[in-house]
Structures are given as structure tokens and as C-alpha cells.
Amino acid sequence: MRVRRRAGVAAIAVAAGIGLPACSSGPSMDELGPQFEEDADVLFTELRDSYAQDPDAAEVTADGSENISCDGGMKREFDATFPMREGDTADNLDYFTRSVVMAYEGDLAYTMTEGDDFSGTERTYRATNDDETITFEINATGEPGSDVVFSGETVCAST
């Protein structure tokens, strides 16, 4: 619903010859950035410490602390991986699923979004905060030694 409303406003503005700034509403990056960094770190650390075969083998390629230019504003990204712990694939995924849901919905009040994929031996989880300015995605196969991929990003926000 929210996407359609924005699309309608943009269409009216274009038809009227009025330009809309890319980052016109919502929190600024000064407000959004610290929350994103904190939430990404809490989620990743909790999952890594509970499910990594070797927590020291975890690799963070983007820690969410850098502003990245986008459509007249800034956004932030978090990308990291860790190897799944030893154990039965189905059990790993069952326990991992419970932990992901509890971390998202319990600890940090994120909402699981549609589009989660629970097929075969792979799970993909997506969640967003209440105002949909931060999203996270976690992908796990559950197989010992396979990588769990954790990513997140903010919307494009004003500075």
C-alpha cells in the first residue's frame, strides 16, 4: 500500500511539472544511522555466537558505519557471513529459525516480511522496523560449514 501511495504522489508531481526530492521525509541519517549500526551488530553477534562453527571465522565486509551516497541522500549497509555450526542440517535450521524470529520480533521489535523462503535445506528471512526505514535479510542452508549470509540496509535518507 505504501508504495502505491508514493507512486501516485510522484505521478501527480511529474504531471504538474514539480520535482520531488529523493529523501524528502522520514528520519535523517543522523537519526537512522546509529540505530541501524546498533541493531545490525546486536542481531549479527547474537546469531554468530549461537550458530557459527567458528565465531572467529565470521567476516564483516560492511559494518553499517559508512554513509553511501544515494539519490540525493545517504544510506548504510551491513554485510557479513559466518560458517554454520556442526550438527544435523534440519535441527540447525529449526533452531536457527526460532532464534532469528526471536531476535527480530522479540529483542528488537522488527516485523518479519513476506517473501521469506523456507524451501528444502535453505532458509531466507526478511524483516523491517516499524517505519520501514531499516531492513535485514538472513540466508542459511543449515549445513555444517556452509555460510550464513547476513545483510541489511537503510532507506536513502537526508543528511
**Average pLDDT level:** 80
End-to-end C-alpha gap: 27 Å
Number of strands: 8
**What letter string, H or E per element, gives the SSE order?**
HHEEEEHEEEE
Low-confidence stretches: 1-22
- Summarize the main sheet: 6 strands, antiparallel
The 3D shape can be described as: globular
Number of domains: 1
Description:
The strands form 2 sheets. The chain has a 6-stranded antiparallel β-sheet with strand order 1-4-8-7-6-5, covered by helices on one side. A two-stranded antiparallel ribbon has the order 2-3. The protein is globular, with a radius of gyration of 18 Å. The chain has 159 residues and is of the alpha+beta class. A hairpin with a 2-residue loop joins β2 (68-70) and β3. It has a single domain (23-154), classed as 2-Layer Sandwich (TBP-like). It has helices at residues 2-16, 29-51, 89-107, and strands spanning 59-63, 68-70, 73-75, 77-83, 111-112, 123-128, 134-140, 147-154. 36% of the residues lie in helices and 26% in strands.
Name some characteristics of this structure.
159 residues; alpha+beta; two-stranded antiparallel sheet; 3 helices; disordered N terminus
Task: Please render the helix and strand layout as text.
Elements: H1 2-16, H2 29-51, E1 59-63, E2 68-70, E3 73-75, E4 77-83, H3 89-107, E5 111-112, E6 123-128, E7 134-140, E8 147-154
Antiparallel strand pairs: 1-4, 2-3, 4-8, 5-6, 6-7, 7-8
Helix pairs in contact: 2-3
